[in-house]
Design a protein that fits this description.
Layout: H1 2-11, H2 40-72, E1 75-76, E2 92-93, H3 97-103, H4 106-117, H5 120-140, H6 142-151, H7 154-158, H8 161-170, H9 176-181, H10 187-219, H11 223-243, H12 247-252, H13 264-274, H14 278-305, E3 309-312, H15 323-352, H16 364-394, H17 421-430, H18 448-470, H19 475-504, H20 507-512, H21 521-531, H22 545-561, E4 566-569
Antiparallel strand pairs: 1-2, 3-4
């Protein structure tokens, strides 16, 4: 009788419960959306299996160096060994003395204050300028929006901190920098000058990056809560990047005069590798890493609690809604480009006035040292992140709670090589890898930012794949077509970004590539700055023309054909809380050429 009543409720429309069904009518087969979830255990196993390489990579390249750094903070002494193959040196355990010395040292607090001051201009750009520009471009229509995307791709692919810093120093010969910001030999004016130079040189790149998130937020549903979430993440990321500022300050002032422009990363570098006081250097790295961990956890919680997802929407081609909106968008874009051009102008001027005879910094081996390790590191770290994102966001092994699998990676979301450089250098020395080409590859086996972004992309595609599987489509081929293929352009974009960032990095190759034949382009330029007169340092090798052209064409194509279709939304799909539960994902918003099964009536009574 109980099964008979359930069949009757399934076949009758709502409100007809008082009508008895024909006794001879056989119960219909349950619809695919009402059947219990098939393969839940297999999906759980495959999801965790795909997550395995990322967990192992994080353990090796993130967790272990972090623990080593923390333990070194309780010790006093220099390197573990003196030279390659030298005797091991046992450090002295001093407990909390290094931290007490650090917190009682006014130099630490001055470095922390100056480090935070470097975040002021990028913070305003990320949470004020970029959202306003995004709003103007979004309201102006398709082609003004796409034009803004392409134009702001130029600062992203040409951003070279060492070259920018050298170019601004070269500009002092004409009095431009000193006239605008004061003498770099005065502590007070030097602080103002470095903050201004940092803000101007990073303006275009920060605005271009933030614009990607804000435009995607405006394209999705519930734009206001998404905009707040994106702004919060952008603010946290800005502070995190500023806490690790090293390259520009090291190149321009080396932390002087009178240590007035010293950042936390530069203070850690000087204590560890100039004074060889690894204990105090590790204490600085631990404090920095702790702050970065809190920021990373906060950003990950925003992603999880807000239930963010990235959808790939159909391309549109709408005309401008009004000439006034187009004019406003064009004026806003021109203003942003003007400020970005001011920051890039010394680099552009020095680029076209560099001498024709290239010094050793432009040799083929230097290019190989720069780009091959950077490309290899990007391929490994983003590749492992992509596989893990397919497991978390695509297969969704824990249902609606799958994003909590990002929690173990959260403390390292914003951690770069700086806080882990001391442990990395010590490990490389113990293995005898210093001054070799192998160690030039950045020791990051998994890119946590790429993992988070790719997880959100895969999450946006997962409901459509689940709906098609429930309708009877093949699971494996559907997963490749619906989840993997739309996420591949994002993986390629993130791989290109990691490659460019690694190639322009100064700290890690400066530590491990002391010999000239192992130097990268940024290291060679920094060395040339001290060996030659400042007017003789060519900065062209930092941004090879072929690399800029290829990267710009690739990014412009992705901006128009892919990134312009992305939409960030906070819609939480009604996923099952665990495999085997029969509540399916709701029908997602999908392109017309990829339909899912027809949704069930919302007022249908549930089974007893």
């Amino acid at each position: 009788m109980r099964g008979h009543r359930r069949a009757a409720r399934t076949t009758l429309p709502p409100g007809a419960d008082d009508v008895s069904p024909p006794p001879a009518a056989p119960p219909p087969a349950p619809s695919p959306a009402a059947r219990p979830e098939q393969g839940g255990g297999l999906r759980l196993a495959l999801g965790l299996l795909l997550l395995g390489p990322a967990l192992l990579g994080a353990l090796i390249s993130l967790v272990v160096p972090t623990v080593q750094t923390i333990m070194r903070g309780f010790e006093r002494g220099g390197p573990s060994r003196l030279g390659r193959g030298g005797p091991r040196i046992d450090p002295e355990f001093v407990g909390l003395d290094n931290y007490l010395d650090l917190f009682g040292d006014g130099e630490f607090w001055k470095a922390l204050a100056f480090t935070l001051s470097l975040a002021v201009v990028p913070l305003v750009v990320a949470v004020v300028v970029a959202p306003l520009l995004a709003g103007a471009l979004h309201r102006a229509g398709t082609w003004p929006r796409r034009a803004g995307r392409v134009l702001l791709s130029v600062p992203l692919v040409t951003f070279a901190p060492v070259a920018y810093a050298i170019a601004w120093l070269l500009g002092t010969r004409d009095g431009g920098l000193e006239t605008a910001f004061g003498e770099l030999t005065s502590p007070g004016s030097a602080r103002v000058a470095v903050v201004a130079i940092s803000g101007l040189t990073t303006f275009g790149a920060v605005c271009g990056l933030a614009l990607l998130g804000h435009l995607a937020a405006l394209r999705g549903r519930r734009a206001r809560p998404v905009a707040f979430a994106v702004a919060a993440i952008a603010a946290l990321a800005t502070f995190a990047v500023s806490l690790q500022a090293f390259t520009l300050v090291f190149t321009t002032t080396r932390g002087g005069p009178a240590r007035s422009t010293q950042t936390l990363a530069l203070l850690q570098y000087s204590r560890s590798f100039t004074a060889f006081d690894f204990g105090h250097g590790a204490a600085i790295a631990t404090v920095t890493g702790l702050i970065l961990g809190v920021l990373g956890i906060a950003a990950t919680l925003v992603v999880i609690i807000a239930a963010l997802r990235i959808d790939v929407t159909p391309a549109d081609s709408t005309a401008p809604r009004s000439p006034l909106r187009t004019v406003v968008a064009v004026m806003a874009l021109l203003a942003v480009l003007a400020v970005a051009l001011i920051g890039m102008w010394p680099w552009l001027s020095a680029l076209f006035s560099s001498p024709d005879d290239a010094p050793s910094s432009a040799e083929a081996r230097t290019y190989l040292n720069t780009w091959v390790p950077s490309l290899l590191s990007a391929f490994v770290s983003v590749g492992i992140a992509f596989v893990a994102a397919l497991g978390i966001g695509g297969l969704r092994p824990m249902g609606r709670h799958s994003e909590w699998l990002l929690a173990p990676f959260a403390p390292w979301l914003f951690v770069g090589i700086g806080p882990l450089s001391l442990a990395g250098w010590d490990n490389a020395q113990r293995l005898g890898l210093l001054d070799t080409s192998v160690v030039l590859t950045p020791p990051m086996l998994v890119s946590v930012p790429a993992l988070v972004v790719l997880t959100l992309v895969c999450r946006g595609r997962a409901p459509l794949w689940q709906a098609q599987v429930a309708a009877g489509a093949p699971a494996a081929t559907g997963f490749l077509r619906v989840v993997v293929a739309p996420a591949l352009p994002m993986a390629a974009l993130l791989g290109m970004a990691v490659t460019l960032i690694n190639a322009q990095s100064l700290l890690w190759p400066l530590l491990v590539g002391a010999r000239r034949d192992n130097a990268t382009v940024p290291v060679a330029l920094a060395n040339d700055l001290g060996q030659f007169s400042r007017s003789d340092v060519p900065i062209g090798p930092a941004t090879p023309l072929i690399v800029v052209i290829v990267a710009l064409l690739a990014l412009a194509a992705l901006q128009i054909t892919y990134l312009d279709r992305l939409a960030i939304t906070t819609d939480r799909p009604a996923e099952p809380s665990a495999p085997g539960v029969s509540t399916p994902d709701p029908e997602p918003t999908s392109p017309p050429d990829m339909p899912g099964p027809a949704p069930q009536p919302k007022n249908e009574p549930s089974p007893d």
